[in-house]
Amino acid sequence: MLDTAIIGAGPAGLAAAFALQQRGLPYTHLERNRGVGGLWDIDAPGSPMYESAHFISSKTLSGFPSFPMPDDYPDYPSYKQIYAYLNAFAEHNGLDKAIEFDTAVEKVEKIEGGYRVTRTNGTSTDHAHVIVASGVQWIPNVIDLPGNYTGEVRHTVTYRSPKELEGRRVLVIGAGNSGADIACDAARSADHAVISLRRGYHFIPKHVFGKPADVFADEGPTMPMWLEQRVFGVLLRILNGDPTRLGLPKPDHKVFATHPLMNTQLLHHLGHGDVTARPAIATTSGTTVTFADGTTEDVDLILLATGYHHAVPYAQDLVGDGPHPDFYLTAFSRNPGLYGLGFVETNGAAYVLMEQLAAMIAQHIDDRLRRPERWAEFERTIATDTPDLTRGIRFVDSTRHAGYVDGVAITRYLHRTAKRMGWTIP
Ligand SMILES: Cc1cc2nc3c(=O)[nH]c(=O)nc-3n(C[C@H](O)[C@H](O)[C@H](O)COP(=O)(O)OP(=O)(O)OC[C@H]3O[C@@H](n4cnc5c(N)ncnc54)[C@H](O)[C@@H]3O)c2cc1C
């Protein structure tokens, strides 16, 4: 019982498999879908992907460090390109051959010396370690609407194509990146388009002075966070103007205090009157929606862009029942031998962190087998260390931002930790 079970073959599961393979550590890889790529496979049952989706971090800073995105990709690749890239990563490293596809995990339980993993087909295997990499955008957070709305209500997890909006009066609730994208689809395809926002946001352009926004920020001088927030606040006001002139609420927080909203197309469509911004819903009656400011809209389709539950249904008792699984540095459980990958909520690109964290997990597993005293030392760290990874940003008080970390702060901390433990990470 020496091996590691990896659950999921999206980018996180692939990063985990790559890290174990590189160190010659045995593993069993389970994926419920027919292939790799996770949520980027638009045809995977339950995927939240939609046709107009593009990456929101640039290809320059977003690929796995060991396998950069192709040079001929655009700055912000489409969902098809990310799906192809993940398949290429798996094939290039021979990871796909080791995956048991069409194999869903139903339960993970603690047993003497490790964990028992039970599939939905009833078979069980025992493993010393388990890496949970099953993603966080599969279980929709469906909210109840006030009043008695009689039109169609769907969560955006079921949304695929602007064709679904043609000839309809559409209201999108929520202005995360998916909500903003889908409101833009509605602006172009629906008969009438409305977006309802509970709070104001800072809209970050995908390009600043001709460069992808993250490359621009990365190449700029290092500043204390309070100064960075001030400089970017002024820059956004110069570039975007006053958002309230477009009917948007004024942001109630500083730049970077919420997950970046990388979308100025919505401002374009608001400026052209193709979509209308409204505040939170107060009540509904029939197909009429009344908003908090007393305005009304008649809509026949409401799309809930209200996010996802970060649950792990097959191992909830092991990862805790908080808004996000309880993992040290988003990856190391207080239950020895249990790990998570893909749970980092951050303003940076996820795949770099996935490869770094996967390398750390693999080296911790290797320490358990070969250097037990170092393994025990890091287990003590997992149990006691509580680093501040906010870099001084006061993230807004919401479920989404509970446990949210700053990309620069966590990267620095991972490097410092790896150095102390004698590990190498990209
Ligand atoms: C529209 C959109 C845009 C995004 N843009 C960016 C971006 O620009 N930059 C960025 O870094 N991130 C971005 N993300 C974040 C996104 O979460 C990651 O890109 C990534 O797909 C998450 O990888 P993952 O492997 O953790 O999860 P997933 O991609 O969700 O993969 C999880 C896998 O686990 C499998 N699985 C689940 N449950 C089980 C089970 N019980 N048994 C077996 N297998 C199971 C699933 O089938 C799936 O294949 C974006 C997300 C969305 C939706």
Characterise this structure:
Helix 1 (11-22) runs parallel beside helix 9 (350-370) and helix 9 (350-370) packs across helix 10. The strands form 6 sheets. Strands 3-2-1-7-21 form a 5-stranded parallel beta sheet, covered by helices on one side. Strands 9-18-10-11-14 form a 5-stranded parallel beta sheet, covered by helices on one side. Strands 8-15-16-17 form a 4-stranded mixed beta sheet, with no helix packed on it. The protein has 2 domains: 4-139 and 308-421, FAD/NAD(P)-binding domain; 148-304, FAD/NAD(P)-binding domain (3-Layer(bba) Sandwich), CATH 3.50.50. Helix 4 (177-189) links the parallel strand 10 (169-173) and strand 11. It has 11 helices and 21 strands. The chain has 426 residues and is α/β, with parallel strands linked by helices. Bound molecules: flavin-adenine dinucleotide. Flavin-adenine dinucleotide (FAD) binds at residues 7-13, 30-33, 38-40, 44, 48, 53, 55-57, 62, 104-105, 133-135, 137, 178, 314, 342, 349-351.
